[in-house]
Amino acid sequence: MSGYVVYVDQVLAGNLCMNYIILRATGRLGRVPARTARLLAVAGAGSLYSLAMFVPGLGQLFSPPVKLLVSVLMVAGAFAPLPPRRMAACLGLFYLVSFALGGMVFGIIFFLRTGSGFGDAGTNMADTINRYFWPGLLLALLAGMCACRLVKHWLNRSSHGKAFQVPLTIELNGRRVTVNALVDTGNSLTDPLTGEPVIVVEYDLLKDAFPEAVREVWEKGGEGVALLAGLGATGWASRFRLIPFRSLGQDNGLLVGVRPEAVEICRDGRVFKAKRVVVGVYRQQLDQCSAYRALVPPVLMDAA
Q1: Residue 162 has pLDDT above 50, yes or no
Q2: Measuring CA to CA, which residue among 152, 211, 208 is closest to residue 28?
Q3: CA distance 163 to 287
Q4: Are the C-beta atoms of 21 and 101 separated by less than 8 Å?
Q5: Residue 281 is inside which H or E element, if any?
Q6: 188 C-beta neighbours (distance < 10 Å), count
Q7: Whether the Cβ atoms of residue 300 and residue 274 lie closer than 8 Å to each other
Q8: Do 54 and 4 meet the contact criterion of CB atoms below 8 Å apart?
Q9: Is the dihedral of CA 111, 154, 34, 251 positive or negative?
Q10: Distance between CA 82 and CA 85 in Å, rounded?
Q11: Phi, psi dihedral angles at 251 (to 5 degrees)
């Protein structure tokens, strides 16, 4: 009687990794911000569910209706609350990414496999997957990342940036500032405390809206934690946030954000009011030609 050994730790680790990647890609494609800890928790729950396939008598847990229910629960656990249409779109993206990644992984696994026959098909297939799973997953991720970068580069070149620019109005301390903003597909910044999306705006546009005490601290210099500490001594302390970023010309940077009274985005002649948003204040120039002076995350445009 032939058989094969199943290592529980490898099953859990493999499914945890796959589930997290699928959920992260779903959030990116659906432009839905999600915290890493939340995605890891949902991915872990999904990996525990996968263990049931090795327990005798639990085959009914892998019927199509139950699989659909588990998928809905995973998407809801990762991204809820969302409007029904957004949730349905995320579920569709979840399956799209799952099938695409799964197909790439299995394709690469059997490409890497050597030998001509299967003999005992079930045993040899399981052994092949067990042997080449991690190389197949890593190569599939590498291929997926390269494809995403190529598509993003092509879209950016074909649009020339203009098609993604919108008028943006920020109300801060009773003042209204209107600026031309670029809808930046690379801007996925969120407030680490609340998960709210971040609009990046040049400091020179906003400085007149700040009280004099806030401007003095800002113009003395300093970045990140040091700047936030100085701003904490002003009456606006509760409105400031510290936002980590890995773009805007540097890695592992810290951007100070502020809560505005209101943010309005104009699109196709209609004005959309963005709720629960943070304005990240950037000390330098975003575009050398000043074609735009703010960056809007795509997630805000979905509701516009």
Answers
A1: no
A2: 152
A3: 16
A4: yes
A5: strand 278-282
A6: 17
A7: yes
A8: no
A9: positive
A10: 8
A11: -105, 150
pLDDT (tens digit, 9 = 90+) per residue, 75-108? 999 888 878 888 888 888 888 888 887 777 777 7
Mean of the pLDDT values across residues 210-238? 72
**Which among 200, 214, 197 is positioned nearest to 303, based on CA atoms?**
197
Query: From the CA atom positions of the chain, what is the Rg in Å?
Result: 24
CA angle centred on 279, ends 277 and 285, rounded to 5°: 145
Q: Given pLDDT bands bounded at 50, 70 and 90, which one contains residue 248? A: very low
**Total residues belonging to the chain:** 304
Spatial contact of 279 and 263, defined as CB atoms under 8 Å apart? yes
Phi, psi of 148 (to 5 degrees): -65, -40
Tokens of 62: 């892998």
Q: What are phi and psi of 257, to 5 degrees?
A: -115, 160
Model confidence at 200, in pLDDT bands (50, 70, 90)? Answer: very high
How far is it, in rounded angstroms, from Cα 102 to Cα 125?
15
Higher pLDDT, 289 or 191: 191
Task: For the full predicted model, state whether its pTM sits above 0.70.
Answer: no
Contact 23, 43 (CB under 8 A): yes
CB atoms within 10 A of CB 270: 8
Contacts of 107 (CB under 8 A, 6+ apart): none
Report d(CA 121, CA 276) in Å as an integer: 55
Beta-carbon-side half-sphere exposure of residue 206 (alpha carbons within 13 Å):
29
